[in-house]
Design a protein that fits this description.
This protein is α+β, with helices and mostly antiparallel strands and about 160 residues long. Helix content is about 45%, strand content about 25%. The chain has helices at about 10-45, 110-115, 120-155; strands spanning about 45-55, 65-70, 75-80, 95-100, 105-110. A hairpin with a 5-residue loop joins β1 and β2 (about 65-70). α1 packs antiparallel against α3 (about 120-155). The longest helix has about 35 residues, at about 10-45. It is elongated and about 80 Å long.
């Protein structure tokens, strides 16, 4: 069994890479749409208030549970402790909270601008290119192996796999 085919044809690899990258970038874009919408909503209609940490779960993506007051009502929520809040928060500390003025129950303990930027199209494209590279190498190697096996059989040789 040959661990790698003798040659990987560029004519096979590059189209596979482009196709895999495009598909993966599209899948990532669709999967991240709710997050983009959430942070966009907070960017457009967000109100910044001081909240109070009620508890934390550092081992769970730096989750912070907090309470805040909006329109005279107390709300409780949770999110990952993103900038400008440190990940070393403790109960009863004051934190930066952004809530949606149209629906005060929607909030995050983060900067919606910074979080929204992490879902930029070019970042998803780069991730798609990287993942596409990995997938296309695996696909191309397997396709090339099969083509080599067929060629060996066509020449009267028995290919070992």
């Amino acid at each position: 069994m040959r661990p790698w085919p003798s040659s990987i044809r560029a004519s096979l690899f590059f189209p596979t890479w482009i196709l895999c990258s495009a598909i993966l970038a599209l899948i990532l874009s669709v999967a991240e749409q709710p997050n983009r919408g959430f942070y966009s909503r907070l960017q457009e209609h967000g109100v910044v208030v001081k909240g109070t940490v009620t508890r934390t779960e550092p081992s769970n993506h730096d989750m912070v549970f907090y309470s805040y007051t909006a329109d005279g009502k107390r709300f409780e929520s949770s999110s990952a402790a993103g900038p400008p809040n440190p990940s070393t928060l403790r109960p009863d500390e004051r934190i930066h909270v952004v809530y949606d003025a149209r629906d005060p129950s929607v909030s995050c303990a983060c900067s919606p601008v910074a979080e929204g930027a992490s879902y930029a199209w070019w970042r998803l494209g780069l991730i798609g290119l990287f993942l596409g590279l990995i997938v296309s190498v695996v696909l191309t190697v397997n396709i090339q192996r099969r083509l080599d096996m067929r060629a060996d059989r066509g020449n009267g040789q028995v290919g070992l796999s």
